[in-house]
Every structure is written in structure tokens, then in C-alpha cells.
Design a protein that fits this description.
By secondary structure, this protein is α/β, with parallel strands linked by helices. It has helices at 19-27, 37-45, 52-75, 89-102, 115-128, 137-146; strands spanning 7-12, 32-36, 79-85, 105-111, 158-161. It contains 6 helices and 5 strands.
């Protein structure tokens, strides 16, 4: 495989698992763009998002608008770090469609951390107020109920991320 060919990096993991931290690290590479769902949702729909159902509606609109942009970046030869959660089969289907339409190599970075670690990080993140959204423990639990790690039959190249911090 050509090491200079574009790569689409995908993130799968619970809130505060470290997805955005890894996205920023990957994005430090030359010819790499990071697209953060949280940043875009906050800028475009922040005042419209008060429930997880609102998130689902706004996220679907954003994915629809972003797909051609992501594809154009990949076709231009840039690597893209998609800091959007790949936590459900529906979310991953959208990502799979982008991969099929562009034919690029991809890596799905999967974070498998205990909920207690993520909750501890979430509390620290919320206290620091440096993130556009401050999920509650109840919202975390609701997200956890819908979380479904990728199945090998989905065909993603999986990279498991070791627990840190």
C-alpha cells in the first residue's frame, strides 16, 4: 500500500474515552485534516441541542452535509481524521459509504475502556469547561445503552487503542 495515499481515520468509543485527543495527535501529521463533529455541531446547532434526540437529528444533518466535503478532501489526496463517533451501526454505515465512494484506505480506532474511566475523564472534562458539550452521567448511560462496537462483518480495519491516563 502506498504510504503517501490518503487515509480516513475513524473513531469509536464512549464519551471521554480519548477520541478527540487521538484525533488531534493524528491531525498533527502533514497533509491531514481533522473534522470534529462536536465543533461543527456546537457552531451550527448548539442552541438546538438539548436532548440526545436533538443530537441524533442534528448529527444526521451534519453527516449529510459533510459527506461530499470529506470525499473531496480524500480525493485531493489529504488524510482525514473524522472525529465523529462510530458507535452504532447507523453511524458506521455513513462512514462505510464514504469509504466505498472514495476507495481510500481507512483505520477505525476503537477505544475499549471501562465506563468508570470514561466517567472520571468526563467529570474532569466537564469541570474544565473546555469542551463544547458537557454530558451528564445520565446522558453517558443513555449513550452506553446504544453503543455497539464494530463487528468484523462490517469490514473495517480496526486499530485498538490502549488505555491511557
Amino acid at each position: 500500500m502506498d504510504p503517501s495515499a490518503p487515509v480516513l481515520h475513524l473513531m469509536c468509543g464512549m464519551p471521554a474515552a480519548g477520541k478527540s485527543t487521538l484525533a488531534a495527535q493524528l491531525g498533527a501529521d502533514r497533509h491531514t485534516i481533522v473534522l470534529s463533529e462536536d465543533a461543527w455541531l456546537s457552531a451550527l446547532f448548539g442552541d438546538q441541542m438539548t436532548t440526545l434526540a436533538d443530537y441524533g437529528r442534528c448529527s444526521a444533518r451534519l453527516r449529510s452535509a459533510m459527506a461530499p466535503h470529506v470525499e473531496a478532501l480524500l480525493h485531493a489526496g489529504l488524510c482525514v481524521v473524522l472525529d465523529f463517533p462510530a458507535n452504532t451501526p447507523e453511524q458506521r454505515l455513513w462512514m462505510r459509504d464514504v469509504i466505498h465512494r472514495t476507495g481510500v484506505r481507512h483505520q477505525m480506532h476503537v477505544f475499549d475502556l471501562p465506563d468508570a474511566v470514561c466517567l472520571s475523564r468526563l467529570h474532569r472534562r466537564n469541570a474544565a469547561r473546555g469542551h463544547p458539550f458537557a454530558a451528564t452521567e445520565a446522558e453517558f448511560a443513555q449513550i452506553a445503552r446504544h453503543f455497539s462496537p464494530p463487528d468484523p462483518s462490517e469490514g473495517f480495519e480496526i486499530v485498538y487503542v490502549a488505555q491511557t491516563g
